[in-house]
Amino acid sequence: MAADKKTEAFLSQYDEEVYSNAIKLREILFMALPGITEQVDIPAKMVMYCYGQKYTEMVCGIIPSRKGLKLGFYKGADLPDPANLLEGNGKISRYVVIKGAKQIGSASLKKLVKAALAAYKQRMTALKKS
Fold this sequence. Notes:
- About 40% of the residues lie in helices and about 20% in strands.
- With about 130 residues, the protein is of the alpha+beta class.
- It has a single domain (about 5-125), classed as Aspartate Aminotransferase, domain 1, CATH 3.90.1150.
């Protein structure tokens, strides 16, 4: 899947390895998250993947930087992580430092994305009941 112009322009600011890995990661996210919406958040310097316009409707986000690439998860602190991929010590969010294409295609990363989708669905169901 080709990046749209806004995503392309945002990601092209980074070096070739970060850009290339971000594009590969993006493809994995679109396959694992059916119907997801991609939103570039310039102030936050990330590409968010959401099922709505609210922060609580975010599943994850690609966070590029000059040092590398991260995949951040909203409510990542609550996700099961048997492969110990998640890093960070925030109360809500966690991230995976992306080390290369092999990791992007790994079963453990795909499981984490699926767990994030399941957690999103549980949050939305709980919100509808309240």
